[in-house]
Design a protein that fits this description.
Blueprint lengths: L2 H16 L2 H35 L2 E6 L5 H9 L3 E4 L5 H6 L5 E4 L4 H7 L8 E4 L4 H28 L20 H9 L2 H20 L2 H6 L2 H5 L5 H32 L13 H4 L5 H28 L3 H21 L17 H11 L5 H27 L1 H4 L3
Helix pairs in contact: 1-11, 2-8, 2-11, 8-11, 8-13, 8-14, 8-15, 11-13, 11-16, 13-14, 13-15, 13-16, 14-15
């Protein structure tokens, strides 16, 4: 191989790539903006949406209010609740989102509470499971029922001369002993590698198509092939360019991710206590370095594979048609790492893409299994070599290059 020729091809392709706005958008702008938009931007929108929902007045129906006059009065006085006239089509109205929920008191409800006994009356709440506003209404109704239930229990205990503490002979405290990076890594550790791997693939798509099918479409492929540069040097120069762009995309996405999650996430404070683990999220420099190392052979694998596919295509559009299904093949194993029960093992360390996703998930939670990390890296290098060999062979075949 002639390194002078490879360098010439590389810088020629690099200059063309820098002039291409599509490559700059997919390889630079998207990875820089994705994580801030998905975390701070999405967190702000989610917090405002939840605040707005909690302030909304929910409409409900009450059935059997004559059996529970006290609770019915409490519901009428409760802020944020509007009681509509009871009708038989309440199920349909809840399903159509014209009514948020309905509550039904059984006959003799309040009398049964006064008498006590072992047969506790059942109160039914009808809702639209999965519909946010309906679930907000359910939570409000459950809170009111819980308060009323506590009062009834307090009254019964007082009649027997007992305090409410009699029902709580001891208390239980749960204390988290894991460091913040492990807690939030467990929550986000599967999602972040998926997005970084996907961006690593997307970053290589446009330049890979442009240096192969794009050359054919522009009619410059023949000109390049008649130059005194061997096919190996041509493929090497083009391949290095695609790998460079893919690695730049990966580096930018990892940097954007690290900075985004290291900054104080004030936007998430509005989400309440559930957001506290996210706000305490920390990314160690060692984890970031190992994520980049593990993505290196994957970038080579993606670049070589895309060049082989792009070489086979006759036009830019045809190459996009071939590569679109490949995105699904990248997404499925990358997403599989987020599923419960998928932990890095010797077998999974040999599955391409999934192995890197699992390793990244582990290192982001500060878990370093060096044996499996080494096996994952070596297997990824092996797959990258096979893909690179396939790309070189495809470029050497004129029946593929000049396919009609």
């Amino acid at each position: 191989m002639n390194w002078h020729n490879i360098r010439t091809v590389y810088f020629k392709e690099l200059l063309d790539t820098l002039r291409d706005k599509r490559t700059l958008i997919s390889s630079v702008i998207v990875p820089l903006l994705l994580f801030p938009l998905m975390t701070i931007g999405f967190g702000t929108v989610a917090a405002k949406a939840m605040k707005s929902l909690n302030k909304e007045t929910v409409s409900i129906m009450v059935f059997g209010q004559e059996h529970a006059p006290t609770l019915a009065k409490n519901l009428e006085r409760a802020p944020g609740i509007k009681i509509e006239k009871s009708t038989e089509d309440y199920r349909q109205r809840i399903g159509d989102k014209r009514l948020r929920a309905a509550i039904e008191f059984p006959p003799g409800f309040e009398e049964a509470l006064k008498q006590g006994g072992t047969n506790a009356p059942h109160v039914k709440i009808y809702s639209y499971e999965g519909e946010v506003r309906s679930q907000v209404a359910v939570r409000q109704l459950q809170a009111m029922l819980r308060d009323y239930s506590d009062k009834v229990v307090g009254t019964r205990l007082a009649e027997k001369g007992l305090s409410h503490e009699t029902l709580k002979p001891f208390k239980t405290d749960v204390e988290n002993v894991a460091p913040p990076e492990k807690v939030t890594g467990s929550i986000l550790g599967g999602l972040i590698p998926y997005m970084i791997i996907f961006l690593c693939f997307v970053g290589a798509v446009t330049p890979a198509i442009d240096v192969t099918a794009g050359e054919k479409e522009r009619g410059t492929m023949e000109t390049i092939l008649v130059t005194p540069i061997s096919r190996h040097d041509l493929v090497a120069g083009k391949f290095l360019l695609v790998v460079t762009v893919s690695l730049i995309t990966t580096l930018l996405s990892v940097t954007s991710f690290a900075i985004t999650f290291s900054l104080p996430m004030n936007a998430l404070k509005g989400l309440g206590p559930q957001a506290s683990p996210l706000m305490a999220f920390q990314v160690s420099p060692l984890s970031v370095v190992w994520v980049l190392i593990m993505l290196l052979p994957l970038a080579v694998f993606f670049s070589a594979l895309l060049i082989a596919v792009g070489t086979f295509a006759r036009t830019f559009k045809e190459a996009q048609t071939y590569i679109s299904p490949m995105m699904v093949l990248v997404i499925i194993p990358a997403v599989a790492a987020t599923l419960p029960g998928f932990d890095l093992s010797t077998k999974l360390a040999l599955v391409p893409i999934l192995n890197v996703s699992l390793v990244c998930k582990d290192v982001l939670t500060a878990n370093f299994n060096w044996g499996l990390i080494a096996l994952t890296f070596l297997s990824s290098c092996a797959y990258a070599c096979v893909a690179l060999y396939g790309a070189v062979q495809a470029f050497k075949r004129e029946s593929v290059l000049f396919r009609t």
